[in-house]
Amino acid sequence: MLMRTDPFREMDRIVQQLSGASGTWSKPAVMPMDAYRQGDVYVIAFDLPGVSTEAIDIDVERNMLTVKAERRPAGKSDGVQMELSERPLGAFSRQIMLADTLDAEHIDADYDAGVLTLRIPISERAKPRKIRIGGESGRKQISG
Questions:
Q1: φ and ψ at residue 54, rounded to 5 degrees
Q2: Helices (H), the chain
Q3: What's this model's pTM, rounded to 2 decimal places?
Q4: Neighbouring residues of 4: CB distance < 8 A, sequence distance ≥ 6
Q5: What pLDDT was estimated at residue 86?
Q6: Among candidates 47, 52, 17, which has minimal Cα distance to 35?
Q7: Is the separation of the CB atoms in 30 and 19 below 8 Å?
Q8: Rounded to whole angstroms, how far apart are CA atoms 105 and 125?
Q9: Whose CB has fewer CB within 10 Å in the chain, the N or C terminal residue?
Q10: Among candidates 56, 45, 54, which has minimal Cα distance to 92?
Q11: DSSP one-letter string for 48-85
């Protein structure tokens, strides 16, 4: 259901993950995701631990789904000295080309326990349907 169009972007994602580089708005890091079909719905889950819902932006333009997020450093108060900082901060982004068989007009988004889950219904025209032969004239009718 997803269409990959840029193999070099995938290589960039792998290099960023291995190097531990933080993302910036001009070159955001990618976020890990899972994608699967569950009945008549396509599900995409993004890992965004520690990101507030206000810092997540989801857009669809034509068939291009774009998810952007930003994880900011925790508010530092006086007397706090950071000893270790391994959690990636900065901007994260992922663009996915959606197939025409998905109904991009009815995407449902949910954010729970650091996971952004998008549910995209399979469009009616992509679902299997029976074709029956109608009446005496022998015309075919499609029932959906």
A1: -70, -20
A2: 7-19
A3: 0.69
A4: 10, 97
A5: 74
A6: 47
A7: no
A8: 14
A9: C
A10: 56
A11: -TT--GGGEEEEEETTEEEEEEEEPPPPP-TT------
Report the alpha-carbon distance of residue 28 to residue 136 in Å, rounded. Answer: 63
| C-beta contacts of 48-57 below 8 A and 24+ residues apart | 48/92, 48/111, 48/114, 48/115, 48/116, 49/87, 49/114, 50/87, 50/114, 51/92, 51/114, 53/111, 56/111, 56/116
CA–CA dist 118, 42 (Å, integer):
8
Q: Tell me which residue of 36, 37, 124, 109 sits closest to 66, measured CA to CA.
A: 109
Which two structure tokens, joined as six digits, stand for 102? Answer: 């998905």
- Distance, CA of 67 to CA of 96 (rounded, Å): 9
Report the pLDDT averaged over residues 4-21: 61
> What integer best gives the mean pLDDT of the chain?
81
